[in-house]
Specification:
Layout (H helix, E strand, L loop, with lengths): L1 H26 L7 H19 L3 H22 L9 H23 L15 E4 L2 E4 H23 L1 H11 L1 H6 L4 H27 L5 H4 L1 H11 L4 H21 L6 H13 L11
Antiparallel strand pairs: 1-2
Length: about 280
């Protein structure tokens, strides 16, 4: 049960980071492989404020959300917007280039070492239940992940912004004809995806670690969550992240010799039977 609980917490962390990629890739049809760089930015913002300036951990989280959101909006307006109509290969090459630039910048400013993170006392320790040791910080991650999932799903389906976003993705020309500011919608959506990545990166420092190689090291994990869950589907990303998190933790505990092979096996098995992902739309 403890392994199962830790797997859920790991899955929630994967969801928090990768759901922003699901938003930009699935809803905006843009292959943004630099998504992990925004998560890394949120992590470094959290660590610098906490370790260098003594800002309380919870107080660093809003800043770790705002800074990547602003960076994402600036990059979207200056660089990404030029590639919306480009081929997927161009988008991949461009975003991979940004990844290596981010890695080099992190090396220059912060060095190659892992960044320490000291959690506040109220998030440390465990709650001991019969047959289950519940880590307080992992429980905190699960609660935050569930709240984010509910709010995102509700905003995309039930708000006017969600309707404008879906219309902009389906047909930009018609959306503009209806008076929708498509460029503004895409900028806000990109900022939202970057903000979620920053939050996940800040919350993930304690479990995943933080160093300049972070965007490269975990890129495949984020892509697997989006692929298994179904591109652009928030509920699918949540279920996929939970399945992969549990499989990863259980596999590394019971069969550590094969490492992360388990999650790749889960991905292959899922996509054989559901090529569009768990909740992806069927294409004709």
């Amino acid at each position: 049960m403890t392994i199962f609980f830790d797997g859920i917490a790991s899955g929630m962390l994967l969801f928090l980071i990768s759901v922003g990629l699901s938003v930009t890739l699935g809803l905006m049809n843009f292959v943004n492989l630099a998504h992990g760089a925004f998560a890394m930015l949120g992590g470094y913002v959290c660590v610098v404020l906490l370790n260098n300036y003594g800002v309380p951990f919870l107080a660093t989280l809003p800043v770790a959300i705002i800074v990547p959101a602003l960076a994402g909006m600036v990059l979207e307006r200056t660089l990404y917007r030029r590639l919306y109509e480009a081929s997927e290969l161009d988008q991949v090459l461009f975003s991979i280039g940004l990844v290596f630039m981010a890695v080099a910048a992190a090396h220059y400013f912060f060095g190659a070492q892992q960044q320490p993170l000291h959690l506040p006392e109220f998030l440390m320790g465990q709650i001991n239940l019969p047959g289950l040791d519940v880590g307080i910080y992992r429980l905190f991650l699960i609660v935050i992940g569930l709240l984010i999932a509910v709010l995102l799903q509700w905003s995309v389906v039930n708000t006017s912004f969600g309707a404008r976003l879906r219309a902009s993705v389906d047909n930009q020309r018609v959306a503009r004809g209806m008076g929708i500011d498509v460029n503004r919608v895409f900028s806000l959506t990109f900022a939202l995806g970057s903000a979620l990545a920053g939050l996940g990166g800040a919350l993930g420092v304690e479990m995943l670690g933080l160093d300049p190689e972070f965007p490269v090291k975990y890129l495949v994990y984020f892509l697997i969550v989006v692929a298994v869950g179904g591109s652009g589907n928030i509920k699918g990303s949540l279920y996929a992240a939970l399945i992969l998190g549990i499989a990863d933790v259980a596999g590394k505990y019971y069969v550590p010799q094969i490492g992360a092979f388990i999650i790749y096996a889960v991905m292959v098995g899922t996509l054989i039977f559901r090529p569009q992902g768990l909740f992806g739309r069927h294409t004709k």
